[in-house]
Amino acid sequence: MTSQIDTLLDETRRFPPPEQFAAQANATEATYQAAAKDREAFWATEAAQLDWIEPWHTVLEWNLPHAKWFVGGKLNVSSNCLDRHVSGGRADKAAIIWEGEPGDTRTLSYAELSQEVNRCANALRGLGVGKGDRVAIYLPMIPEAAIAMLACARIGAVHSVVFGGFSAESLRDRINDAEAVAVITADGGNRRGQVVPLKKFADKALEDTPSVRHVLVVSRIGEAADTVMQPGRDHWWHEIVDAASTEATPEPMDAEDLLFILYTSGTTGKPKGIVHTTGGYLTQVTTTSKYVFDLKDDDVFWCSADIGWVTGHSYVVYGPLANGATVVMYEGSPDWPDRDRFWALCAKHGVTVFYTAPTAIRTFMKWGPEFPDRHDLSQLRLLGTVGEPINPEAWMWYHQHIGHGRCPIVDTWWQTETGGIMITPLPGVTTTKPGSATVPFPGISAELVDTDGTPIESGGGYLTITDPWPGMLRTIYRDDDRYRETYWSRFPGRYFAGDGAKLDDDGYWWILGRVDDVLNVSGHRIGTMEVESALVDHPAVAEAAVVGKTHDIKGQAVAAFVTLKGDRDGSEDLVKELKQHVTEKIGAIARPEDIIFTADLPKTRSGKIMRRLLRDIAEGRALGDTTTLADPNVVNMLIEKHEAAEG
Ligand code: WTA
Description:
Layout: H1 2-8, H2 19-24, H3 29-37, H4 39-47, E1 58-63, E2 66-71, E3 74-75, H5 77-90, E4 94-99, E5 105-109, H6 110-126, E6 134-138, H7 143-155, E7 158-161, H8 168-178, E8 182-186, E9 189-191, E10 194-196, H9 198-205, E11 214-218, E12 234-236, H10 237-240, E13 253-254, E14 258-264, E15 272-277, H11 279-292, E16 300-303, H12 310-322, E17 326-330, H13 341-349, E18 353-356, H14 358-367, H15 370-373, E19 382-386, H16 392-402, E20 409-412, E21 446-449, E22 459-465, H17 480-488, E23 495-503, E24 509-514, E25 518-521, E26 524-527, H18 528-536, E27 541-551, E28 555-564, H19 572-585, E29 594-597, H20 611-618, H21 632-646
Parallel strand pairs: 4-17, 6-7, 6-8, 7-14, 8-11, 11-12, 16-17, 16-18, 18-19, 19-20, 28-29
Antiparallel strand pairs: 1-2, 3-13, 4-5, 9-10, 14-15, 21-22, 22-23, 23-24, 25-26, 27-28
The structure holds 5'-O-[(S)-ethoxy(hydroxy)phosphoryl]adenosine.
């Protein structure tokens, strides 16, 4: 950890909030003070800004590790994101400004979005989908993705969005784990000028998903997609949704009813279904959107995350829409047709608040400032980052070339499990330091602990959360034991995030990254075990060990050490084949950057693979202690192979 700390930290640079920004910010010092005085009262005051069908009687019931927030309260998330704005004077205001990769655009006002959501809700009800049923959503970044999520919320169905970059097999596993009754997909999506044939992938997944009764298909591509529809099971969106009524009664949901399941990688080969409920989740994403992104009525907010990740759930859909903001959605890639596409979008749609991942910022930095410089970005007033630690160099570049020194940057730490932002500056209030996520959001209690779980005031350690928070995951879907084990057993009584961190002398948090067997590749979580399982699934592979190696754009890249069966030789062709195999099993995000064949893996005498050593080899570093190795020769051979592979 030490070398990482040294390169990440420069505690001397400080950026106090610009005065003009501070004068008008939603957050003030009083926001911190209110929460510090009484956490539960703070969250209750925020929750009370939402529309409740029935009020709650108890703010928090905490039976470690199970929390219930706003107990007894009833509400509907879609009513809060839509109806309340339609009747409250925002009917004609743009809710979603969408742009497709080919350049087609669509703007939906709050009234129009509300009608579309109701139509979709009625279509789903017409297919027999109701409260508590699980619906898998496998869509590109098109307005229908948000519409489908909100329609599920309207009828009380639990959505499980599966990122469109995941393979058929990943989709199938997620459908089956949740026993989804319906799947919403599209004939395809556009990515770098190519069509991603989602329906074809979905069909492959659907060969073995006994719970699915209906598939709703959006026609994004049209005839060119050559879509095969299975009679009785598959329905075109434009046929049944467009024909449905624009009025749909919202299902009154208990504050603790499920809103969604979202699968994320853990330390085993099987992804975890993270369970989020209704009242607390909506409270946290609404509150953080208001204070962290400072959303005002005339803001145009673009969070560039895909709807398939939690960031898309919380800060493309639920948080900003609950605040009545205008959000931007974009279907394609930042380098299509040219490397200035993001900035062209910002200028064209008047984006005021922009939220993206460090990996994207490092890519922009590599491409050079001439691309943003082609466009008028003067409307931008606030920038955000999420997903991985941001190196101070990338922070400074973002600050200078995108924010032109004028925009505060919010570096927001949180996770799929936390539902909403947890550690972040409040723009207008908190002084920032490049590379630090700064301090916990009001009403969030984070503590750094050492290996024994003893709290430490400064230095390096493990990030834990000591008190329940409204947006926290409630459990892992149908696996409460894994929930207890993963998050609450390492440090009894505390939520363990899986991240290492450092606290500086000002009490500022510097997140160092995962300390478990989870990789963070371009801000996407990938379990080493998942990739290993995919590799050993290939007939030629006997054993595989996967580690993350530092990568200057992606943050981390996947490096795989593979031993082959029998006397098979590792060839260039086999490398390609294995990479392709992983892509097919999981998705392109898990594709190994390096595959190194080895006759043996370095193991301790008790048979444990020495991952730290493999990381050192993958990164070409001097090796640490190898005295516990069963066979020291293995390592020398590996180093030679790696050096040869690197050329
Ligand atoms: C990492 C994404 C440093 C962290 C919202 C966490 C970060 C994992 C930051 C969660 C940040 C997220 N600084 N690291 N600002 N934000 N992370 O579940 O390792 O996809 O545990 O949620 O991303 O990833 P997830």
